[in-house]
Design a protein that fits this description.
Elements: E1 3-4, E2 7-8, H1 9-26, H2 28-37, E3 61-65, E4 68-71, E5 76-79, H3 94-104, H4 115-128, E6 132-136, H5 139-154, E7 158-162, E8 175-178, E9 181-184, E10 199-202, H6 207-214, E11 219-224, H7 240-250, E12 254-258, H8 269-273, E13 280-283, E14 294-298, H9 300-312, H10 328-341, H11 344-367, E15 373-377, E16 380-384, H12 393-399, H13 402-413, E17 417-418, E18 425-427, H14 434-451
Parallel strand pairs: 5-17, 7-10, 7-11, 11-12, 12-13
Antiparallel strand pairs: 1-2, 3-4, 4-5, 6-14, 8-9, 13-14, 15-16, 16-18
Length: 452
């Protein structure tokens, strides 16, 4: 018997065949649309990442509301992916939908500020603790702009990241450690210069490596998620961030925290929940209820240095911002989301459900004696194919198993349960119920039972 991560691999492969056949039989309309799309969409999908799901062809969505969606073949699903955090507070939350509907009658974009922008900036300052803010259309753009500000402020060229990080499509972050040496990621398309000339990569949770990377005084900023989320979740060791912040301050490196995923930690993100004090701060995806928008904030001192850098630069385009940035529609959506959806009470409810989910998953794993673990960051939960949670990106990368992930995901999908296609991340939202969580845990248990 072939085993893999503690399961019977022959049974798992046989199960995958059966699940693929079941999906094909149940999805004639999705199959038809996939065939039509192949004629005019590159790779047959609007975004090539949409081919990364476990399905034989694309699953087409007809409608989504709250924690649920329906496909074009009439099947209903409980959504634990939630747009990979983009819909972390549910699909089309009513306050946001109502605000968008009102704003559509008042204009979409004008390249001029609105009253909503003033309210939003004040609320961001209250919530996250940084006094000054700017906007972008995505966290990728916000990270690009924040890096540009950091370089302008410090007059330094280099960026420091953690191996295995994810910060959107920013060129500077696609550097991996291969046998301990930085290397431009092989999968990065169209890259024509050596990123490692301006980006350093070290392992997460390694303070000695952090100091070694900073001590020559050439690093403009450390760009980091407070907990790694996209290579499988990796939590900081106790005291890591307190020491890391002190090192950044000692060597004059700005700390740029990206909370696009770890906003699951609370209304003020991991930063406020754990007392971090970044110089620059980014959050995207769910901040406007799923409408394309992101924000980035500045500490008082960093804001003053940024203003000085702009005033003393020659006139002309700064390379920061796009025409649709801070458009009227996005600002209205963000105001409604921050005021009425992304609330303290919503987070407390989500935390309770996530704890219920994590406990349920751990129970299944323990009953079957699997060498797996469960990691949780607020409303964000993940099961990982290792008995001991990884401590850095290299360890997390070694336990990833896309084949096994696809089998698990497809099994759950065929039972009306969607989780994130990239590793095993699971989100709950204010519309998720305890019954939904229990249903997911039961289906997870059924899967494990069938492959033992």
């Amino acid at each position: 018997m072939a085993t893999r991560h503690g399961i019977n691999w022959d049974k798992a492969q046989a199960l995958q065949v059966a699940e693929r056949n079941a999906f094909i039989a149940r999805m004639p309309r999705s199959r038809e649309l996939s065939a039509q799309a192949a004629g005019h969409l590159l790779f047959g999908v609007p975004l090539h990442w949409m081919n990364d799901w476990s399905t034989p062809f694309s699953l087409y969505v007809a409608a989504a509301q709250g924690a649920r969606f329906q496909d074009v073949d009439g099947h209903d699903y409980v959504d634990f992916c939630l747009g990979d955090t983009g819909a972390m507070f549910g699909h089309s939350p009513k306050p946001v939908a109502d605000a968008i509907a009102r704003q559509t009658q008042r204009g979409y974009t004008a390249m001029l500020p609105s009253e909503d922008g003033v309210w939003v900036a004040q609320e961001l300052a209250r919530r996250f603790g940084l006094p000054y803010w700017q906007f972008a259309l995505s966290a990728s753009d916000a990270n690009r702009f924040a890096i540009r500000w950091a370089r302008a402020i410090t007059k330094r060229s280099k960026v420091l990241i953690f191996n295995g990080c994810y910060h959107g499509t920013v060129d500077d972050v696609f550097v991996d450690l291969v046998d301990g040496q930085p290397q431009t990621r092989d999968s990065l398309l169209g890259q024509v210069y050596d990123i490692t000339q301006h980006t350093r990569s070290i392992e997460f949770n390694d303070l000695a490596a952090l100091e070694a990377a900073l001590q020559d005084g050439e690093v403009a900023c450390l760009l980091a998620e407070p907990a790694m989320t996209n290579i499988g979740m990796v939590l900081p060791q106790p005291g890591f961030w307190q020491a890391a912040q002190a090192l950044c301050q000692r060597y004059g490196t700005l700390l740029l925290i990206d909370e696009t995923h770890t906003i699951s930690s609370g209304p003020g993100g991991y930063t406020r929940a754990h007392g971090l004090q970044p110089d620059l701060f980014v959050v995207g995806k769910p901040v406007a209820g799923g409408v394309p928008c992101a924000v980035y904030g500045f500490s008082e001192q960093t804001a003053r240095r940024a203003e000085e850098a702009k005033r003393t630069a020659p006139p002309g385009h700064s390379g920061i911002g796009t025409t649709l940035t801070a458009n009227l529609l996005a600002m209205a959506a963000m105001r409604a989301n921050l005021a009425e959806v992304m609330t303290d009470s919503a987070y407390q409810y989500m935390f309770g459900l996530a704890e219920r989910l994590a406990a349920g998953l751990r129970g299944v794993i323990a009953r079957h004696g699997l060498p797996w673990c469960v990691t949780q960051i607020g409303a964000r939960t993940e099961f990982q194919f290792t008995a001991t949670p990884p401590q850095n990106g290299s360890e997390a990368d070694k336990i990833l198993d896309s084949e096994l992930e696809h089998i698990v995901h497809l099994f759950l999908l065929n039972r009306g349960l969607l989780i994130t296609p990239f590793h095993n991340m699971i989100l709950v939202c204010p519309d998720t119920t305890a019954t939904d969580v229990d249903r997911l845990v039961a289906a997870f248990g059924d899967f494990v039972q069938q492959v033992r």
